[in-house]
Amino acid sequence: MTKAESEPLVPMTVAIAAVLTLWPATAMARDSVTDTYGGRDMIVHVPDRLPVAGSRALVIVLHGGLGNADRIANGQSESGLNMDAVAEKDGFIVAYLNGTPVTRFLGKRMLGWNAGGGCCGQPAQTGVDDVAYISGAVAYLASKYGVDRARIFGTGHSNGAVMTQRLMCETHLYAAAVTFSGPLGADTDRCPAAKGRRILAVHGADDRNVPVEGGRGSKGLSGVAFGSEEHARKVFTDSGATYTLQIVPDADHALDHIGAAILKSEGVTIAEKSARFFGISANHDPSAK
Q1: ∠198-146-67 over CA atoms, to 5°?
Q2: Which pLDDT value is given to residue 30?
């Protein structure tokens, strides 16, 4: 079993799903707690050392389709999205949110997001309002943990990346976002809410699930014709946002492969890279502000 099996567009079988459901969870980090909002569990990592209440930063992490928050928090899949170690070092809060079941038959641990443009699965087919859900969850977390509303950031992989870009397009929720393997899915040519915001879109050059150039991939189950990264870049930049596209050579859709390539070429994990882009790392990139 590989970590890539939690990605939204990798072929799955009921047998594999059953194995994943039975896979024992490792212990969460001691500073992580399970909280609930809107009937969905979420895992929140709160470091021992934080700035004073009212000035704290928050990073929202969205899993890919067929994934869930628990598997990221426990390093079982999409582990590059686990920002606990960086949060401990730099003193910010991380929340791993859960979507809703992506199909009727794969169980309650195989989750996804209604990310726009028909993506992905049952959340899109039934019109789950994930924009409202995530917005409400963020407001709840910001109030509970003393977060500065101007220091809230988002990241996600695949279906979670497409959802993050939708949030950047339709809300003022995030000051900046880093997305992996997923462009804008919403059928629009304008994102007024994104004006003045920053996006770093990281995409594997060899992605056959969500092709960089758009369209239906040759791998995966979604059946969605995705927009291209160039379309996303144009929509956001035309709307006054900054959209930095990084194509990673010799990497496909899998977050592990993208992370390994970036670690080799840049000497940082994708969690650290994201924190630097947000400007909440002690080693942040001043040019990213």
Answers
A1: 60
A2: 61
Express as a percent the part of the chain with pLDDT over 70: 87
Q: Which helix (H) or strand (E) holds 162?
A: helix 159-170
Tokens encoding 44: 């929140």
Listed residue (206, 151, 198) closest to 179, CA to CA: 198
Neighbours of 189 (CB within 10 A): 10
Check residue 105 and give its pLDDT.
83
Rounded mean pLDDT, 1-29 = 35
Integer angstrom CA distances of residue 260 from 10, 113, 238, 282 = 19, 26, 33, 22
Give the closest residue to 226 by CA, choosing from 63, 95, 115, 89.
115
pTM of the model: 0.88
**How far apart (Å, rounded) are the C-alpha atoms in residues 275 and 280?**
5
Choice between 10 and 203, residue whose per-residue pLDDT is larger: 203
Q: What is the DSSP letter of 82?
A: -
* pLDDT value for 3: 37
pLDDT for the residue numbered 76: 92
| Helix (H) or strand (E) segment spanning residue 40 | strand 40-45
Distances (CA, A) of 19 to 8, 13, 23, 72: 17, 10, 6, 17
The token pair at 148 is: 């500065």
For residue 212, CA distances in Å to 20, 131, 185, 225, 260 come to 29, 24, 13, 12, 19
Rounded distance between C-alpha atoms, residue 20 and residue 22, angstroms? 5
Q: What percent of the chain clears pLDDT 90, i.e. is strictly above it?
A: 81
